[in-house]
Amino acid sequence: MDLMLILKNLAIILVAAKLCGLLARKLKAPQVVGEIIAGLIIGPSLLNLVVKDDFISGMAEIGVILLMFSAGLGTDLKELVKTGPVALLIALSGVAVPLVGGMLVYMGFGFGTPSTQLYEGIFMGTVLAATSVSITVQALKEMGHLKGKVGTTILSAAILDDIIGIILLTVVIGFKSPDVSPVDVCIKTILFFVLAIVLGFALYFLFKWISRHWPHSRRIPIFGLVLCFAAAYCSEEFFGIADITGAYVAGIILCNINDAGYIERKMDISSYMIFGPIFFASIGLQTSFDNFNMQILWFSIALVAVALVTKIIGCGGMAKICRFNVPDSLKIGVGMMNRGEVALIVAQKGLDAGLMDSKFFTAVIILIIVSSILTPILLKVLYSKWPDKKDSEIENEKKLAQEGVGATYNISDNDFKQTQSEDK
C-alpha cells in the first residue's frame, strides 16, 4: 500500500468534502449532500482524482460504524417509552408501505434476473424504509414545534423506524445467501437481540459506575469506543448480523448513562473531521454513471415519487387511524419522508452483499437530495396553514405576558428578549 497515495487521497477527499459541505449548507441543503457530491466530483465519474481502494473502504466502514454508534447514543429511551404504541404503529406502517412500494417499482422496471429479482426488489424497498430524522428535527426546531405532540411523535417514530429498518436489513442480507436457511437467520437474529438485552443491562450498570466515579474523563469515551467496535465485530462475525446493528446497539446501551452526551461529543469529533466525510464521499466515489440511461432516469424519478408518497400514506395514514386529525397526520407523514444517512448505509451494505448494482446509487442519492430539500419546505407550508393549537396558545400567552410586563415596568421588546435569554 503506497503511503504517499493514501496521504494524497485523504487530503483531496477532506478538502473537497468540506468545501462542498459548506456550499450545501449555504444553499440550505444538508451538509451530507455536499459531501456526497464531492465524491462524485473527485471520483471516476468526473475528475478522476481519487479511486476508491481498500484503505478508503476500511476508513468508510469505520465512519459508518461511528455514525450508527452516535445515533444510538442520541436515542432518548424515555421518550420512546412515552410515545409508546402509537409511534411504533406509525413506524411499522412507515416501513411496510415503502417496502412494498420499492419492491413493486424495482420489479416493474424488470431489473434483475428471475432468481434474484425478488430479493433485490425487497432490498430496494428496505432502502426506502429508512427515515432520516436530522433534517426534520432541525426544521421543527427552527419553527418552534419540536416539543409539541406532533414533533415528539415524528422523532420517536423515526427512531423506531430506523431500528426496524436495520433489523430488516439484517434479515434480508441473511436470506440472500443460499447456504443460510431462513430459520437460522431468524434464530440468530433473535439470539443476538436477547444477548444484547441481557449483556446490555450488565454493561449499562458497569458504565454507569465508571461514569459516577470518573465523570467526564477520557477513559469513558475510550471504553465506549471499545464497546462499539467489539459489538460491531461480534454481531457480524458470530451472528451474521450487519456490523452497524452491533454499533447501534452499543450506543443504545450507553444512551442513558450520565456521560452519554460527553461520549457522543467525543465520537463526533473523529466522525466529523475524518471518518464521516470519507464515508459520504466514498458513496460518490463508487457511484457510476457508466450505465446511466433513460431507463435508469425514469426509474430514479419513479423511485423518488414512490418513496415520498408511500411515507406520507404509511405514516400519515396510520397517524389518522391513531386519532390524529388530518392536518397533524399530514405533518407526521411529511416529517417522516426524509431520507439520509441510514438510507445510504443500507444501500452501501446492499452493494457489498451483492443485492444492489452501483448504478442504482444514483437513484438513492437523488432521493436523498430531493427529500432533504422538500421536507422542510412542506413542513413550513403545513404549519403555516394549520398551526399547532397548543404552540399557538403558548405563544399568545408569552405575548400577553410580555405586553403586561412591558406596560407595567416600561420594558422594551429587546429588554424582554434579553431577560428571557439570561434566564435560560
Helix content: over 70%
Strand content: under 5%
Query: What is the subunit organization of this protein?
Result: single chain
Largest sheet: none
What's the mean pLDDT score?
81
Q: Counting H and I runs of at least 4 residues, what is the number of helices?
A: 17
Number of strands: 0
Distance from first to last alpha carbon: 54 Å
Looking at the structure, what is the overall shape? globular
- SSE topology string: HHHHHHHHHHHHHHHHH
Structural class: mainly alpha
> How much is the radius of gyration in Å?
23 Å
Report on this structure.
The protein contains 17 helices and no strands. With 424 residues, it is mainly α. Residues 390-394, 400-413 and 415-424 have low confidence and may be disordered.
Break the fold down into its secondary structure elements and pairings:
Layout: H1 3-26, H2 31-42, H3 54-73, H4 77-108, H5 117-129, H6 133-143, H7 149-176, H8 182-213, H9 219-239, H10 243-254, H11 260-285, H12 294-321, H13 326-335, H14 341-352, H15 361-385, H16 389-409, H17 413-423
Helix pairs in contact: 1-2, 1-11, 2-11, 3-10, 3-11, 4-5, 4-7, 4-12, 5-7, 5-14, 6-7, 6-15, 7-8, 7-13, 7-14, 8-9, 8-10, 9-10, 9-11, 12-13, 12-15, 13-15
